[in-house]
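Deliverable D5.2: sample structural annotation.
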Amino acid sequence: MLPAPTVRVAPLRVRRLPEEAGIFAVLVVVVLALSLISPSFRTVSNGFVLLVNGSVITFLALGQAFVLLTGGIDLSTGANIAMTGVTAALLMQAGLPWPLAALLALAAATLLGVINGSLTHFLRIPAFIATFSTQGVALAIPLIVTGAQSISVHDYGFAWIGQGRLLGLPTPVMLIALAAVTAGLFLRSTRLGVHIYALGGNRAAARLAGVNVARTTVFVYAVSGFCAGMGGLIATSRLMVGFPATGTGNELFYSIAAAVVGGVSLFGGVGTVLGAMIGAVLIAVVSNGMNVINVQSYWQSLVIGVIILIGVTFDTYRRSHKDKPVLRGGRAADNSARPAPRAPVVSPPPISENLVEPSNSP
């Protein structure tokens, strides 16, 4: 008889929703709810105001996402905003053209990030302590230099960063869109981007695999410093004043909330730039919506705090149940959750004691 033909069954492809689908659905629900509550919220002008006001938080969340992916945290971003704005204002007051002043201020902000990364890696100082210390230094420098006085900016070309338009859209919105696309492609398509995720997933294993831990750590904090510097330039150019207290409010609080709610894990190794950006937009929508419907400002901190608590709780639950089957006590969620069948153990035949050894004689 001919053997039966072998039928190969192609494995079923399970389509999974993107990780950002959940937070995006929450954003849509919040936008619809606020639009129904207040007709002025759903106007185009308010939409532009919302995006421009949220651009600083979005830049901070982008930089914070890089640091969180490695398992660190940067508490100096709010102070970096003030330092960058005052530095740019002082340089323009000294006679430098605004593009050069902006670049030098960005360099100073990035340098602060490099210092944070160096303290964290080379001196083994915990990121929380290191960045908390540099936060105090970055807050004190503008106050000492200016005597706690604001510095007016008279170079009106500088206003283009925070008040201008590019391709018909506000410049801050275009800048954050360009930065987000660049950061997303970088994390997905470059070796250093892969190393960032590896470092946050398992630092010891990443080191053994050849990841340059020092370079990666310093790099992510430098990115955070640069993003905070961009936020400082936008905030200063919108006011045309270098104020030493700029960025010392809820900016740091909101930036961490945006990244965490967007799916970036506080434990490192998990998260995307798109998720952090959606989280930042959600924070901006909640803040703007509560202003539009005349909710008192101190309620905003309560709402954002609850959002952070929910995000961190979900993140902790997701990590603790990452390797467990979805269904318990019954059938597994799929066949992949079942243990592989073991091959039967074949015992050797027993050796009889009556066997006679063959004789060596002919």
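Annotation notes: The domain at 51-315 is CATH 1.10.3470 (ABC transporter involved in vitamin B12 uptake, BtuC). Residues 213-239 form the longest helix (27 residues).
The annotation will be released with the project's public dataset once the embargo ends.
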